[in-house]
Amino acid sequence: MAAQLPAHSALPSSRERPPEGNRTRTRHSSPGGHPASGPQRPRPPTAGPRPTPRPRRRCSVTSGHARAAGAGLLLQGRDCVLTPHAGAGSRVWCPGVGCRRLIRVEPSRGQTVVRDVRTRMFHLRTCAAKLRPLTASQTVKTFSQNRPAAARTLGQIRCFTSPVAAEPFLSGTSSNYVEEMYYAWLENPKSVHKSWDIFFRNTNAGAPPGTAYQSPLPLSPGSLSAMARAQPLVEAQPNVDKLVEDHLAVQSLIRAYQIRGHHVAQLDPLGILDADLDSSVPADIISSTDKLGFYGLDESDLDKVFHLPTTTFIGGQESALPLREIIRRLEMAYCQHIGVEFMFINDLEQCQWIRQKFETPGIMQFTNEEKRTLLARLVRSTRFEDFLQRKWSSEKRFGLEGCEVLIPALKTIIDKSSENGVDYVIMGMPHRGRLNVLANVIRKELEQIFCQFDSKLEAADEGSGDVKYHLGMYHRRINRVTDRNITLSLVANPSHLEAADPVVMGKTKAEQFYCGDTEGKKVMSILLHGDAAFAGQGIVYETFHLSDLPSYTTHGTVHVVVNNQIGFTTDPRMARSSPYPTDVARVVNAPIFHVNSDDPEAVMYVCKVAAEWRSTFHKDVVVDLVCYRRNGHNEMDEPMFTQPLMYKQIRKQKPVLQKYAELLVSQGVVNQPEYEEEISKYDKICEEAFTRSKDEKILHIKHWLDSPWPGFFTLDGQPRSMTCPSTGLTEDILTHIGNVASSVPVENFTIHGGLSRILKTRGEMVKNRTVDWALAEYMAFGSLLKEGIHIRLSGQDVERGTFSHRHHVLHDQNVDKKTCIPMNHLWPNQAPYTVCNSSLSEYGVLGFELGFAMASPNALVLWEAQFGDFHNTAQCIIDQFICPGQAKWVRQNGIVLLLPHGMEGMGPEHSSARPERFLQMCNDDPDVLPNLEEANFDINQLYDCNWVVVNCSTPGNFFHVLRRQILLPFRKPLIIFTPKSLLRHPEARTSFDEMLSGTHFQRVIPEDGLAAQNPENVKRLLFCTGKVYYDLTRERKARGMAEQVAITRIEQLSPFPFDLLLREVQKYPNAELAWCQEEHKNQGYYDYVKPRLRTTISRAKPVWYAGRDPAAAPATGNKKTHLTELQRLLDTAFDLDAFKNFS
């Protein structure tokens, strides 16, 4: 017996329907009012006359979300406008003109939402096809061939693979009739026969095909009452629940692969270690069919078809796949030679972008030309190392063997970035593979590299130089892939792994700043890391921490980790607590792409994606090249001592070049003769360069300069002059700067009342033609800005100043985040002033500012420590870059360090900036008196020193030394010990007269009181520096010894002012000499000053000491003890008999 249609009942005459064009419908009725029996298909009854539709407003629905103009209600998707009088739960025709939708009113999240119910009717009309039982193969074929490409949504299409009874009456001829019934039922469920009511209720509840329809009871007494009591299927709900559960399970499975698929990816080319140090497989990854039970599935579900969620792209053009195919595609995307970590990123767009890049079927395809290019780059990378090994087998070179794919990887990143508009790439890397990068990425001349191995090569430049695998390089060339100019700079670095990271970032930021690249589209950075250092060095985290800060961001860095799976001799299981060495990158939501380095095409694809990510989102990204180290830590090291099993496998490992060449030959991309010709061609290039290298007799380190300053020096790298102009200014300029510094240059800006008093005090000082420390700094900065010198001041709390003295950024007291920088309102065409509070980091931030200062000599870059002693957490940057930078790499740098210093009774941690450490590293000889008659002696001293160390005692001298830093014809680092109590000391003031045109920085400030008027009567000449001068003058005045004791201040400690101090000593022939300092004897300046002072006077007199005794801590934590120690040193300084008992 054929299936029956539910019984029909007449539609209410009051129903209004939207116009259906010119198409008409008829309705046919069968006797009995229910589906006819027999083999024939029932015909719908003829319809009565169609009611005239009433006029309605234009529908205001648009795609996506809209709001109904008349009703003020939220519309979603295909929803239509709602008549103002419609209530929740009612079904009405849309009153919009031209709209033919029946809409239903539903409450949604506290709002009344209208839903288009015709979409459900559409599924009913087509369910004969949509719900027909399908096999897995039929389903895949159907969706792949017939379904148009569209955005994937979890729709109401449901596919079943097990045989079920479909509804035969749902066909093309009966669909119109069913639609009529459905419309009537939507308006009023009681207006249709009970059998239709049950059918539609079951269908809406999700009953599977064949179960939604219930045959009506035969006509008999009591059948009407029985029919009235008929209920929808109760057994349909469990099937619906199972269907939903299975789909949710599949979604969970997909998400599991996205989150944890990388844990089972085949990343180790040696097949020994698990890259995540864990051999177990996550429970939710389907490594065998028995694991399906984790999701409530079993093997019988593998051929069932499931709809794909919008959070995956494994379907390609298909919106549904069998479970077996879903798992296979997930494994191809996440568990092969690429492992992707990205699900910790809290941005949906970024996650979707990554999913699309790795999940889309067939997306990782390369043309034959791209494969041949990759092979050629592998040939160059591999044969370069082979050549060095043949020629200099006993030399350290820290070769790239085991990760030769790094060279094509870097070139791919550069090529893709160049294609996206980048024209300047700044790189930083450790020593491993550096020569190869210089040769094959930067394109340094091979003969310049090969001659570095010649032990007879002489150094032509000043300084010590550095080993070949620490040197940097700057080169501009044509990118052959994009045919665009590109500049490449590899920053020189010490052996301190990762120390160059913030330096590269700072240089990148500076280059972006100077070319106006505010989004990082023109200048970018690439940082290379080793696996052990990336996990172990804290500077890596500090650098990441700067990556998205407004004044430090470089808009994304590509990090490439050469993951040798070993650190020198340390096993990774002993070297880190995290699964991967790259886990630190997760803190900034940087995606991490792990890749097996023995799969060159996978490496190239990952590098392309990394470059595209950086170009698209301007955020950091990490490429983890899981590889191995074919030799030991260096070529002379024996790794079998500590990693015997690993190196047994490495000895058997076929090189990646050979593997890839065999693959391309088998694919017919190249043939064996072509491959061998490529090798012989590069070998010939190396041999010819080697021959030319023998002609190199002198090493020019300046040829390896990573940051040239075109136009600043002469063509041979010398200063254009050896003089320094006056650092003074006209009074008009001083007054103008002072007036701006004491005002708010913008309107409608409310400042703090306390700040108003500070600005008023500044204004009074300007009227009185004097400056304090903050105002002197303001005038130095402001005048340089007028001259076109960019100034950047960075450090912790520098905008206000640790001691609340600077206030370079004003904050509106009524408007959040509204600020004003008066320094940027000084002149119409001034250079910009950047002042920025840094993160609570010294190592990273100081390295960043050093890199910023590298980019241009025409900028004053300053880093201020919150307290002077905090610089010791940045000691690596000071010791390895700032102090010896010019000697090692012929690279000048004018960075300024402001280090608050002074014994104020605040305890051992906030007192000393450790001046003894800086002075100890000065390169002048304490036992050699230079030629004091030399012309421009002071400038020559500055040119020869490695850095300048000053401790100013007056605001005026501080003003001059800042301006001198820029007016000098060369650049040297400047270390300034800045005061704390002197910031507000009433005697620490300077008159405009000492800052006018014609004035200079005073290296030594001599005695100018009574003692200077009668020098023969002076019994003691005290030398000092900094704040202690004010303690000494106060004590001298109290003791009435102004004629007996002279006090001379040494403002510039290094280079040591031999000439001026000799003049001071000769001026007081009868005076004994003493050095006075507030620091402990084994600290401070004494050990530096004493031998140089003795050399100055040809050791004719002793140099006595007046100060605190030696101590381990910089200062006492007890205020009383501090005062007692201070008084003791003052007593010693002014007791003329204090040194009589000493020989």
Automatic annotation (TrEMBL):
Essential cofactor(s): Mg(2+); thiamine diphosphate
Location(s), subcellular: Mitochondrion; Nucleus
InterPro entries: 2-oxogl_dehyd_N (IPR032106), 2oxoglutarate_DH_E1 (IPR011603), DH_E1 (IPR001017), KGD_C_sf (IPR042179), ODO-1/KGD_C (IPR031717), THDP-binding (IPR029061), Transketolase-like_Pyr-bd (IPR005475)
Record field: compositional bias (Pro residues): 41-52
Record-listed E.C. numbers: 1.2.4.2
Swiss-Prot/TrEMBL GO biological process terms: glycolytic process; tricarboxylic acid cycle
One GO cellular component term noted in the UniProt record for this chain: mitochondrion
Catalytic activity: N(6)-[(R)-lipoyl]-L-lysyl-[protein] + 2-oxoglutarate + H(+) = N(6)-[(R)-S(8)-succinyldihydrolipoyl]-L-lysyl-[protein] + CO2
Gene Ontology terms for molecular function: metal ion binding; oxoglutarate dehydrogenase (succinyl-transferring) activity; thiamine pyrophosphate binding
SMART domains assigned: Transket_pyr
EC top class, as a word: oxidoreductase
Domain of life: Eukaryota
Region (Disordered): 1-65
Keyword list, A-Z: Calcium, Glycolysis, Isopeptide bond, Magnesium, Metal-binding, Mitochondrion, Nucleus, Oxidoreductase, Thiamine pyrophosphate, Transit peptide, Ubl conjugation
Similarity field: Belongs to the alpha-ketoglutarate dehydrogenase family.
Name the record gives this protein: 2-oxoglutarate dehydrogenase complex component E1
Organism of this sequence: Vulpes vulpes
Protein encoded by which gene: OGDH
